[in-house]
Design brief:
two-stranded parallel ribbon; 8 helices; NAD(P)-bd_dom_sf; mainly alpha; two-stranded parallel sheet; 2 domains
Length: 215
């Protein structure tokens, strides 16, 4: 998992951590992951391109090996977000993936694939792990997250251009009344879902002869 702005996995974590005050975590999602900073991924690529003798493949990972709940907790702590994680005994990976897609900007197929991958460890092979030739240390998870959040100067709860469209919807009441970004995000999601359902209902209820040409 790459920790950096624009990484699909990182953006899902950021968006879910921002939106959900209470984070449901399936009990099977305690597999290990070895996240790596995007800066270190670039270092590995540059080193590989400059070494004509390099052959085969290597795993690139950071110094920390965490469970997914621990990674969510690390993000919340670095971002200064007070969040509670609640274990969920029964949650099929497909349901988890669809929930991720609904609450983030990730395409459904991508979210479903990522949810399925959460059932497996994603750590480097001990004998095939990339070690920087320059000997400089790799960023740990906390520092990688901190640099990713500070990259554009925005607060952790600020909507970004890559977020789902509903996160930037105007909500007059919400704009007038100060509230935490997570509460605002939940309200926006509810409004967006209500509008979607209402739009579908109108299309079903409108008689064919009342529809606009080409509808």
């Amino acid at each position: 998992m790459v920790l950096g702005a624009g990484s699909t996995s990182f953006e899902i974590i950021r968006q879910l951590a921002t939106l959900l005050l209470v984070q449901p975590v399936p009990v099977w999602m305690r597999r290990r992951v070895q996240p790596v900073a995007v800066r270190d991924v670039v270092r590995a690529l540059v080193e590989a391109l400059g070494d004509d003798s390099a052959t085969g493949n290597l795993d690139v990972g950071g110094p920390d090996v965490l469970s997914y709940p621990e990674l969510l907790g690390t993000f919340s702590r670095v971002a200064g977000l007070l969040r509670v994680r609640v274990p969920v005994p029964a949650a099929p990976s497909r349901v988890v993936g669809l929930g991720m897609a609904a609450l983030s900007s990730a395409p459904p197929r991508t979210a479903l694939a990522l949810a399925r991958s959460l059932r497996d460890d994603m750590v480097c092979r001990p004998d095939r792990t990339w070690v920087p030739a320059d000997g400089l240390p790799l960023l740990d998870a906390e520092e990688a997250i901190r640099q990713a959040l500070e990259g554009d100067g925005s607060a952790p709860e600020t909507s970004r251009s890559g977020d789902a469209a509903w996160t930037t919807t105007r909500l007059p009441v919400g704009d007038a009344v100060p509230s935490p970004a997570s509460v605002r995000a939940a309200s926006l999601l509810a409004v967006q879902r209500a509008r979607t359902v209402a739009g579908r209902a109108r299309r079903v209820l409108v008689r064919p002869d009342e529809r606009a040409p080409g509808a």
